[in-house]
Every structure is written in structure tokens, then in C-alpha cells.
Recover the amino acids of this structure.
């Protein structure tokens, strides 16, 4: 005989998986994923299992005078990202930028940072390339194959999220090219280093592809 108590217990059991299913990956996964995307014995200036041109490896260079320490500058011509240091130098990384018509130069504020973020393509991306993006309409779970990779820096204008990001990529061979839907891509092992050094509230300058100023 099925009693009311049995029915309630059965309904609770059916509901339990939905109640405990996390919307995001547990931080317990992060270390394992970081190890997966970081070369053994990683040296930022020499490790290159991705086959990048050596100029896209992390290096320290002299910064232009007058730049604010902590800020980020993206050279869309040379495909470099510079993180300005207190001592007049900058840490330089190779990047990929948006394809023709999708790259958006401007002055932005990094208002949010996330480790192993979930990703959802914008409505414009889904409309433009449904065969590529429609399957992620409800979001792509975090992990090494996620489009935002291991870390993401979120670019805002005022309090408005622009949906532009500086983020890791599961396609490291795209570094040095125009490949994204507008974001700035980095090798995951590189952005893992940058992420720890960048503070929220700093300014990110994305310069025009014609070499002009902002």
C-alpha cells in the first residue's frame, strides 16, 4: 500500500538530484584542470608546447613612459598584451583578437575576474553562426575545452558589461591571429599568471587595428 508518507519520500528522492546539481564546477576541479593546461616544468619565457612564434611567449619589456602601473594595454597590430609594472617595465604576452568587424577598440574597466568560468555565447553570436553556437544557448560548462578557458577578465564601460573578455583559449594556435568573436584570447598557462597579478578596477586599453590612438 502506498501511503502519503511514501509518496512524499518518493517525490523528494526524484527532486534531490536537481537540488544538489551545481550550476558551476566545484573548485575541487580547478587544480586538476590547471595542471592539465600547464606544461610540466612550466617556464613562462621558454615553455612552448603550443608551437607559438617565440615573440608571443611571456617576457618583460620596457614600458612607455607615463603609463599607470596595473593597467592593461592590447596592441592589436602586433597582437601583444602588456601589463604595466611599478618599475617602468611591462610583462608582455601574445594574444589573438577579434575577427574583422568584431574587434572593438576602446577604454574599458576590468570589473570582474573568474576562474574556470562558465560561458554562454551572446545572442548576436548565435544569430550570426547558429551552426557553431546554438548548442551552447544554455551555456557551456567550465573545463579545459570551454571557450573562456581557465580564467576570464570581464570588460565593462561604467557599470555596463560589454560581453568582451580577456580570457584563456582551448585553441592556443590562434594566438597572433584574428580569430575570436571580439574577445582577447591568451594561452591558458599565460592568463593564469596574469590573472593573479591584475586587480579589479584597473583600466584595459584595446587599441585600434590601424595602429591609431584611443
Amino acid at each position: 500500500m502506498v501511503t502519503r508518507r511514501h509518496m512524499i519520500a518518493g517525490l523528494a528522492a526524484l527532486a534531490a538530484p536537481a537540488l544538489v546539481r551545481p550550476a558551476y564546477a566545484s573548485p575541487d576541479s580547478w587544480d586538476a584542470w590547471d595542471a592539465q593546461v600547464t606544461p610540466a616544468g612550466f617556464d613562462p619565457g621558454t615553455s612552448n608546447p603550443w608551437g607559438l612564434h617565440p615573440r608571443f611567449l611571456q617576457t618583460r619589456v620596457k614600458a612607455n613612459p607615463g603609463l599607470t602601473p596595473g593597467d592593461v594595454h592590447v596592441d592589436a597590430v602586433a597582437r601583444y598584451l602588456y601589463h604595466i609594472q611599478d618599475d617602468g617595465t611591462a610583462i608582455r604576452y601574445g594574444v589573438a583578437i577579434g575577427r574583422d568587424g568584431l574587434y572593438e577598440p576602446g577604454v574599458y574597466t576590468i570589473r570582474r575576474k573568474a576562474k574556470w568560468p562558465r560561458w554562454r555565447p551572446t545572442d548576436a553570436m548565435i544569430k550570426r553562426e547558429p551552426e557553431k553556437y546554438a548548442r551552447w544557448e544554455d551555456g557551456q560548462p567550465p573545463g579545459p575545452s570551454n571557450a573562456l578557458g581557465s580564467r576570464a577578465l570581464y570588460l565593462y564601460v561604467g557599470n555596463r558589461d560589454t560581453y568582451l573578455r580577456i580570457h584563456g583559449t582551448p585553441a592556443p594556435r590562434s594566438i597572433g591571429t584574428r580569430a575570436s568573436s571580439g574577445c582577447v584570447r591568451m594561452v591558458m598557462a599565460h592568463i593564469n599568471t596574469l590573472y593573479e597579478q591584475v586587480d579589479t578596477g584597473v583600466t584595459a586599453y584595446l587599441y585600434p587595428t590601424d595602429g591609431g590612438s584611443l
